[in-house]
Amino acid sequence: MNRKMKQIVLPLLTALIWGSAFVAQKSGGEVLGALSFNWTRYLLASLALTVLVTVRARRGGASVPRPGAERNALLRGGAVIGTLLMISSYLQQYGVSLTTAGKAGFITALYIVIVPLLGLLFGKRVRPVVWCGVGVAVAGLYFLSFAAGGVPVFSTGDLLVIACAFGFSFHILAVDHYTKLADGVMLSCIQFAVAAAESLVLALVFEGFPVRAIAAALPFILYAGLLSGGVGYTLQIVAQKDGDPTVVSLLLSLEAFFAVVSGAILLHERLTPREYLGCALMLCAVVLVQLPEKKSGATLT
């Protein structure tokens, strides 16, 4: 597969896997608690990436971090982003069980709008197009929660997924920081292990160890853990390694679209025309904030 095809096909496949994973999360959440679902899927994702790290090391693609600053950054970063992942994914998993897979996918995509806004906290400039994207996203949320009489009404599930979008935004900023200090694949492997361990501890306290429920949800756990976690993350790395970051991110944003399509086909979910309009607006917002900034003095060729 040539480079141009790779930066189109791989992100599209990743978006399809991630989008359809909302169906697995929705279905798994019907028989298994959010904490139990998460620790099992992140354990699988961690094991899958451990295999990847081992293969890369044997092929010379990555070296074991030496004691000192690099290893400290790897362990500290894995703990930080793993904890953020645990919190965000719990909010998402609990929320998706109380709303539709499609709505959860689109609301989660808000992190792409939130991330540049959070950059203000670190003194980063927010481009005018981002402010436009925020306005469009707010309009999209309005139509997604439009009720009779014109008053927006968010369900508990919607609010939880909105909170998860903020959590994933902080997670992305933390990942951006620590991947500059440590190997990205190793970092992700550790974050999955941390998220699995923390979710397991909380699950034992609040949900117990429901063996039968885990067995019943196993197909959904396998999909969310191995495909969405292990395979999806690996495809994203390969796509971003040689691809244009703007093109790749735009294609990955189709995750929300695939969430709605998968929910409609597999779960027979149906949105109202107003909700479809809200989804369309939020997709526009996601695309807007990822458009490259025009450079001064650029000429048309």
Ranges where pLDDT stays below 50 over 5 or more residues in a row are 296-301
**Beta-strand content:** under 5%
Q: Assembly type of the shown chains?
A: single chain
Give the helices and strands as they follow along the chain.
Answer: HHHHHHHHHHHHH
Largest sheet: none
Number of helical segments with 4 or more residues: 13
Strand element count: 0
Radius of gyration: 19 Å
Average pLDDT rating: 84
Distance between the termini: 29 Å
Helical fraction equals: over 70%
Structural class: mainly alpha
Shape: globular
Fold blueprint:
Elements: H1 3-29, H2 34-58, H3 69-96, H4 101-108, H5 111-118, H6 128-144, H7 156-178, H8 184-206, H9 211-216, H10 218-242, H11 245-252, H12 255-266, H13 273-289
Helix pairs in contact: 1-4, 1-10, 1-11, 1-12, 2-3, 2-8, 2-10, 3-7, 3-8, 4-7, 4-12, 5-6, 5-7, 6-13
